[in-house]
Inverse folding.
């Protein structure tokens, strides 16, 4: 090893250590406290709090509680923006048909057989993530993304045309996507509608009972933690995200020749 | 019951077991949601995944599969690993690579895939291509002992094929 190389290594080591030392002394700005911060304490205390029924969010998972309860409206608009983007993609590809008459080539029979088994495995994992969104890390968006892997695999291994022949068509996926979004919307205003019927006050995006609005989604059914509105949000988001990604992936897999026939 | 509905039964059972296994819990919530998901998945993909419902529900075949898995991962894999480790560490590195045509004689896709994946998963042999019509694998073999297809099958895949035939055919 040359002398200059040794010098370079030593100076890098000295640089890293001095930077670490300065950072640990607070020389590069405010140091976050070692203990749990105030804001986090508030979230943790109100995510699952059986002693204060008006200050709880019906699940064990703080992240899901924040996403679908504390800031549910934000997440709703995020989902709506995502939906808008997908509608835009569909609009760009309007009139482009996925021809299902020609036979798909696909990959070798070995890959096809193995992928057939993952048609069971991957959706099951996705569904478990969606249904346990209020209990363990995960939730609707993550589950939807996992489920999309099946579509990626199917398009690669079986071919897009085969997928369409098996009934995975654009209108069906669009319908599924819309059902997911409608479900999210209905869950958001569910308690308001129920309140109108039985004549009590309720808010949109309300999950558990509040001081002036004493109806809530079921937090417990028997002794099973049900998750209130979180469970419904996660399931509908799962459906919406899965259908949205599927639709875009299918559109992007259409051959250029087919697209160019319509869009010149 | 039509074949399609029948086919969804083994698919649903498999789904339910995998759901509980992945969730890692046997609570009431998990069993109920698992059952719902299993029925939906079973109905959706049952007739794609399952070729013959009767075979898929056979306990004898499932038991054979279990024996095969234990034998394959404990015996076949270990043998192949030791052989490749020996070759890699040997000072002369005795390799004699070749791509050999290996015939197979099973009728279902699942059995064929089990043989192919068994060959690939053991170190030293890899299925690189497949002649589906004439039932041949093209196997890359690290130490090609023979170039005769039938003898190669005897050495590489006869035991896998025996099991695959009993489990899936």
């Amino acid at each position: 090893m040359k002398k200059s190389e040794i010098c370079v290594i030593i100076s890098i080591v000295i640089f890293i250590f001095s930077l670490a030392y300065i950072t640990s002394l607070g020389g590069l700005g405010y140091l976050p406290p070692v203990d749990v911060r105030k804001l986090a304490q508030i979230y943790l205390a109100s995510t699952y709090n059986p002693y204060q029924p008006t200050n709880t969010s019906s699940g064990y998972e703080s992240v899901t509680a924040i996403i679908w309860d504390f800031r549910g409206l934000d997440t709703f608009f995020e989902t709506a923006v995502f939906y808008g983007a997908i509608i835009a993609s569909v609009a760009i590809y309007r009139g482009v048909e996925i021809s299902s008459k020609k036979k798909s080539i696909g990959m070798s029979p070995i890959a096809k057989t193995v992928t057939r088994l993952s048609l069971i495995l991957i959706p099951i994992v996705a569904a478990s993530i969606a249904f346990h969104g209020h209990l363990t890390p995960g939730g609707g968006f993550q589950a939807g993304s996992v489920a999309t892997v099946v579509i990626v695999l199917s398009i690669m291994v079986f071919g897009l045309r085969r997928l369409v022949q098996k009934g995975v068509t654009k209108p069906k996926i669009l319908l599924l996507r819309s059902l997911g979004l409608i479900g999210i919307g209905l869950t958001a205003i569910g308690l308001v509608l129920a309140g109108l019927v039985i004549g009590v006050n309720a808010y949109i995006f309300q999950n558990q009972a509040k001081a002036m609005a004493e109806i809530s989604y079921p937090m417990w059914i028997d002794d099973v933690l049900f998750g209130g509105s979180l469970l419904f949000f996660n399931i509908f988001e799962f459906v919406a995200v899965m259908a949205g990604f599927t639709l875009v992936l299918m559109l992007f897999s259409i051959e250029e020749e087919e697209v160019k026939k319509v869009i010149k | 019951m039509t074949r399609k509905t029948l086919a969804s039964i083994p698919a649903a059972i498999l789904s339910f077991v995998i759901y509980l296994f992945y969730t890692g819990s046997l609570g009431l919530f998990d069993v109920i949601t698992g059952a719902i998901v299993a029925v939906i998945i079973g109905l959706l993909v049952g007739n794609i995944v399952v070729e013959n419902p009767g075979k898929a529900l056979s306990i004898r075949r499932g038991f054979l599969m279990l024996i095969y898995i234990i034998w394959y991962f404990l015996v076949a894999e270990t043998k192949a690993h030791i052989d490749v480790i020996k070759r890699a560490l040997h000072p002369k590195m005795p390799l004699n690579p070749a791509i050999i045509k290996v015939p197979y004689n099973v009728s279902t896709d699942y059995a064929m895939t089990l043989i192919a994946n068994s060959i690939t998963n053991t170190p030293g042999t890899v299925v690189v291509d497949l002649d589906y019509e004439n039932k041949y694998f093209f196997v890359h073999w690290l130490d090609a002992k023979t170039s005769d297809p039938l003898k190669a099958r005897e050495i590489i895949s006869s035991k896998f094929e025996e099991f695959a035939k009993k489990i899936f055919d």
Chain A has two domains: 1-31, 38-262. Chain A has a mean pLDDT of 89. Strands of chain A lie at 220-221, 224-225.
